[in-house]
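Justification of computing resources. Each target in the renewal requires a structure prediction run like the one illustrated here; the chain below, 442 residues long, is used simply to show the kind of job we budget for.
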Amino acid sequence: MALTRRKLLAGGAAAAGAAVAAGCGGGRTATTATATAQRDARAAEDLSMWAGVRAELPLDPKLRHFAAFLLAPHPRPVQAEIERHRRLLDADPEGYLRAADQRVDVAGAAARYLGGGRDDIALTTSTTMGLAILYRALRLGPGEEILSSVHDHFATDEALRLSGGRVRRVRLYDTRDPARASADEIASRLAQAIGPRTRAVALTWVHSGTGVKLPMDEVAAVVRTAGEHHGAKVLLCVDGVHAFGAEDVRLPGAGIDFFAAGCHKWLMGPRGTGVLWGTPGAWRRAERPLIPSFANASYGAWIEGLVPPPDPPGPAMTPGGFQAYEHRWALPAAFAFQERIGRERAAARLRALAARLKAGLAEVRGVRLVTPRDPGLSAGLVCADIAGVDPGKAVQALAAKRISATVTPYAQRHLRFGCGLAVDEDDVDAAVANVARTARTG
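Resulting structure tokens:
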């Protein structure tokens, strides 16, 4: 019988193995007590109206929150779960840790939400951690490369650089006028860029610098066809953080091989939580953990003098060490909150708010939309420029009117709005009116 860390330390002072197992696939499912607590939380909520959804977000009602996507507030059911776990963990730290795998199944909840199996998911603290784990783990042969784009965030670019692999980048649309991007152009440029030595394509689903959403079905088809043409499987690796919770993301069958996302943006999950999802076949090409795992199979192998195995891959790639457990264990409550709202309903709501904002801004003299108006090429982010006005100054002018917006964190800066569930039609109209005022007055 294999010796696991949990067996070794049963009743001992280091119960982290059971705690990690509860999160990353090495343990059992949640108990009836947890399910009962979740039912009680649901009974107190009315999410049938958007005002009811907003009432669950503990935001300052005096502000218009177009920046809430950046680091989302904890919805009340999520905050309640965090506090419940924190209280019980404080009362009996070792005992609560030791029994964690009988109490909560984070990876299982993530798998039910995304699709696939619980062992396909590594738990992380952020998109950045997930990308670093992924690109460090990918195996490349001599002369083989990863193809990325010029539109990605620092986290992708730097994770690829630090991986030590050969990286090439492609421009998928004209960065001088992203609003004119088209699905055909993006697919065509990507198809032309994938070469016989390309083994992975590293892209971002929704670009935080422009608001452009890649047409993922077309992108996946291009990557699959290119691999068949060149006679070697090409992995499609996606930074999905600005799609996760803004789109109805269902992964198996979508053509994506790896998906990394933080859960504390559009999903409105606990801060400091994230997922790295991979297909079983893709994980076999990424079996080098960046950080030692505390999963039972990994720790048990070490105890027995063996090399920790790469299977199951999600637990094996989940970083070990003690975590902010109360936040991680509350992640299932975020998935449940989104399901109760309705995933496609929420995505449709975001598209409608973004469409309203884009339509309003397009009518303002001196304002140039950066984000495409086509809902197939945009999600909840809307970026724009005001002629003669620095984006930072525009954000300050809006803040003076209690409208919270952001500047894109790139060399090419734009004014940016997040049309999430924290805003409504009145907020959108107020944002348009105040952008128009700033455009007139400078």
